[in-house]
Amino acid sequence: LLDKANFQWGVCIGAELLFNSSSIYLQQGLYVLSPFKGNGSAYNRLGYRRRFQNGWVINFGLKTHLAVAEYFEIGIGYSFKQKI
User: Using CB atoms within 10 A as the burial measure, which of 4, 7, 42, 69 is most buried?
Assistant: First the structure.
């Protein structure tokens, strides 16, 4: 069903610095399986997350390979358990 040549599998470790309802997060990861060899085996992700009182969450992030950006991401979500 799915073409395995289009998937990258990795493991990561990260940290999130909280400021009230906002946060900045950083992840460092390594690809375990990747058909794309040109970018190396390590990646980084840096982003901003904002949580709202009504449970909604927005996310802006940048995935990079060292100093080379791969893509910018925008996300929206909903948190059922709120801790604000």
Answer: 42
